[in-house]
Amino acid sequence: MPQPKPTSIDLAVIGGSGLYNFPGLQHAERHTVDTPYGAASGDIVVGDFAGKRVAFLARHGESHNLPPHRVNYRANLWALHKLGAQRVIGVNAVGGIRADMGPRVIVVPDQVIDYTHGRYTSFCDADGAEVKHIDFSEPYTESLRRDVLAAAGRANVAVINGGCYGATQGPRLETRAEIARMKRDGCDLVGMTGMPEAALARELELAYACLALVANFAAGCGDEAEISIEEIFAHLAAATANVPPIIEALLK
Ligand code: HPA
């Protein structure tokens, strides 16, 4: 398979649960990118959107075949970087912990706590790789976060500015006790895919921000005794409809 040359990509979008292709992407070409870390979640689809070049990658695969702990985060970020992306928006389904972060709310978080384990968290994990320490005090690129917030405003989509994303291992949802602990730790949201993606983006010096789509109240935070997976996907579908307008405004 011939390897792609870096192209000018204005923005890359990594779609999470419920976002497996990017609606409105025109003249799309598919790129299968080889990486030193193995295969990415799938082809990267590059096309025109709002007059700009947008790259799209479905984090879980286009048929949602990869659970969060088996996503090859390193290959995904490397492939986007190799194609020439410099700015990445990670779209992530989350559970809401904070009372104002209920289903269908969109949050642009500003902090992360990582509870995942057993994932490759750094490009330094490879044999012979140079050891590189990154500053991660602010895990998201503040200028991109601000641009996303402003774009949401122009697109008339309500979003919450800031919040702490707690990244759990999945694929199961959490217990009430785990969520109670995360709340005490200061988490406002819980999701399974925010890390190590954000840290790997920083290692590659990519600008990275997260659009967190709330699918449900996290365990013990809502009225229901159980969380319905069907309802999660229904809320996600509704929240996901707001992503293209935000991205369109971001590109203008
Ligand atoms: N927990 C973890 N990840 C999630 C949740 C949740 O409640 N909802 C959507 N993604």
From TrEMBL:
Substrate binds at residues 192, 216-218. Residues 11-249 form the Nucleoside phosphorylase domain. Phosphate binds at residues 17, 59-60, 193. Transmembrane segments: none annotated. Gene3D superfamilies: Nucleoside phosphorylase domain. It is an enzyme of class 2 (transferase). Pathway: Purine metabolism; purine nucleoside salvage. One of its GO terms (cellular component) is cytosol. InterPro entries: MTAP (IPR010044), Nucleoside_phosphorylase_d (IPR000845), Nucleoside_phosphorylase_sf (IPR035994), Purine_phosphorylase-2_CS (IPR018099). Keywords: Glycosyltransferase, Purine salvage, Transferase. The record marks 174, 229 as: Important for substrate specificity. GO terms for biological process: L-methionine salvage from methylthioadenosine; purine ribonucleoside salvage. It catalyses: S-methyl-5'-thioinosine + phosphate = 5-(methylsulfanyl)-alpha-D-ribose 1-phosphate + hypoxanthine. Its EC number is 2.4.2.44. CDD domains: MTAP_SsMTAPII_like_MTIP. Catalyzes the reversible phosphorylation of S-methyl-5'-thioinosine (MTI) to hypoxanthine and 5-methylthioribose-1-phosphate. Involved in the breakdown of S-methyl-5'-thioadenosine (MTA), a major by-product of polyamine biosynthesis. Catabolism of (MTA) occurs via deamination to MTI and phosphorolysis to hypoxanthine. Homotrimer. Belongs to the PNP/MTAP phosphorylase family. MTAP subfamily. Although this enzyme belongs to the family of MTA phosphorylases based on sequence homology, it has been shown that conserved amino acid substitutions in the substrate binding pocket convert the substrate specificity of this enzyme from 6-aminopurines to 6-oxopurines. This is Probable S-methyl-5'-thioinosine phosphorylase. It comes from Rhodanobacter glycinis.
